[in-house]
Amino acid sequence: MASDAETLLTLSGVGKSFGGTVALQGIDLAVQTGRVHAFVGENGAGKSTLGKLIVGVHEPSAGAITLDNTPVHFASPAQALERGLVAISQELSLMPQRSVLDNIALGREMTRGPFVDDRATRAHVQALMDRHDMQIALDARVGDLSVVERQKVEILRALGRDARLIVFDEPTARLPSDQVAPLLALVRSLAAAGKAVIYVSHFLDEILEVSDTVTILRNGEHIRTGPTARETRETLVEGVTGRVLGDQYPDIAPPDRAAAPVLSVTGLARRGVFSDVSFDIRPGEVLGLAGLVGSGRSEIARAILGADPAEGDIRLNGALAGASIADRLAGGIAMIPESRRDDGLMMGRPIFENVALPHLRQLSGALGLNRRQERDEVTRACAATEMKYAALDDPAEALSGGNQQKILFARAAMGDPVLLIADEPTRGVDVGAKQSIYNQIATLAASGKAVLLISSEIEEIMGLCHRVLVVSRGRIVGELADTALTENALMTAAFSGT
Amino acid sequence: MQTAITFARTYGILVVTLLLFCLLTLTTDGFLSERNMRNILDQQSGVLIAASFMTMAIIAGNFDISVGAVYVATPLVALLVENATGSIPLALVAGLAAGAVMGGINGFAVTRLKVNSFIATLATSFMFFGAGYLVSDRSIMRPEGEGWRALARTRVFELTTATWIALIVVILAGILLTRTRFGRNVYATGANREAARLAGVNVDRVQMITFVLLAGSAALAGILGSSRAISAQPSDDFSFIFAVLTAVIVGGTSIAGGSGAIWRTVTAVFFLAFLSNGFNLHQIDPIWQRLIEGFVILVAVSIDAASQRRSG
Q1: Is B30 a member of any domain?
Q2: Beta-carbon pairs below 8 A across chains A and B
Q3: Which of A70, A371, B27, B293 has the highest CB neighbour number within 10 Å of its CB?
């Protein structure tokens, strides 16, 4: 890296409390221009809060922030923006109905008298794109763009406002895995252009790849800050969790190959999405469904649940499954959907309602719901997942990402399913919670449940699955098991159809 | 701060209603009289019935503006049958069935045609108001027999039948919402439609049922209203829906869906009734009542917005 980096922003003894809860304390660090500075930690470690303190979303409750060697105190994001400090939020600040041009120029339109000068504004935005070598069609509607392009729009807007420091908060959390690399390249190019970049993430591989400096946070405390070059995956894991990483993946006994399949899928097809999908899963087997995002993995899973219409035969324990989701659930399928926020949980509703929802028929008698039985069974199901919660009446949103995911595991296990479909079960959860989710999967498999696991993390697929089907462009292009199951073979197959 | 908002949202309406009750008891002679209380209960019976099921529809994620039109049109259908056959049971069945059909049309527009519920029910409001004019031939309708009047106005243990019917309907609605699988599905559908669907809830059916129940309850309220007035007349009067919606919103049911409670709506009905009664007893210009009511709605919605921000 160039040695022309200079200190832009300094935090000394910065802390933040919400009510009685200490989110951050005693943070000392310096952010330099032309560098990518990563904040890493588990969910709840305070890394996002720290990013928000810097751009004025939160005000620090202790300590001081200095910018250009003068103390600053931001009461709002607008004040931080005035001084060139910007956060790229997850598309929240864009107007999806408006054009790229309108979004980038927002608040900085060129005017002639009282009127917006469209031509000058357009030329100005185009010049901005040329200068940073980021081209997007100016008249495209932002809502039609891909996630990465939307992030580009946000970045361009920030650059148009003379941003000097840009904070990325979990920018890849909602990104398809094949779009991560372009985003990281974009982040690097901003640093190369002399901007200070703060990169908040819990994806260790991304941090190792993209950052120059890394700050590790744990439970709101500053563990260490140093050059990324001195860190490895193992040292980072140790830093964020406070313990040495053992073997993450539990042993799962191989299934009985002679047992009759729990699920048999024959000739499953959905026009334009996937076709000719056929496979079996046996009791106790963990079958991986691997492939790039957009390959049709999740869509196949949704079709098996009955969430989308599809042609072909789906047999559960030999019998043809009914068409509705309710039929499939009654037949013994349980699913943990890809996005727990959009498709899984009712965030504002109590934990127990979230867990019990698909099982209310079994919990109802002639006089309506048996609420005591419901409490008992939900309590037991939650305990089995090692979920941490204060009260079952708390809303789901009160829990951390990992514990929210456990609500879905408790929901799935409570129905005593024969098949669990888990779509990205560890997305957005921290290292410790991952371990516990792997144990859940192992426990279910050991008790004779079949598991269909979808994951973008190859290690996870390799570590947990007995057998892996690789999906590419809506077709199963490979089946790997035992010694043939290598990372290389998996990636080769995944890219084969593209 | 957040716990204060949560508390305000859950019990605030109960606290202010009790305060108002005490205030009026202390400052007026007539408020706590048996007669005044009986009157309030009787006057609010229609709103109580419809507001209970409006709460349910809003929790499931939908608005229903057409309740006002159902309230106007269905008693006309009932009286048409009463005039033709002289049978009160048949008239009741016809009126309630007309309400159920209207609710079915709303449900169809929202679940099948995927029209935003506010817009869909605004459109059907005009249809139902129009149906009212057609059925009545644009004139006021009166019952043939003496029995119609007895529907709402018979005294049983000091209270009118309208009051008793309202109490029973409110309790049944409360049980349906809090103690049954259907009730849970209503909350789930409003809180996260797709998550509920993937968990096996037939979300279209749940929403359809809430519309049918709501329109049916509005028909019941309309019929009781026509019994109290011993007549019914066609109009384009939206005032009933405003009274119902005001009660639900002041009761703290989230307009975003997924949360709310019937007991709070019921409390809000009484809060608003006490307010109006208090203005009467104190002989204050009723214009002030409008200003205060508007202010109360704004406060209730602000509390809702504040708690949405927390979860957003």
Answers
A1: no
A2: 83
A3: B293
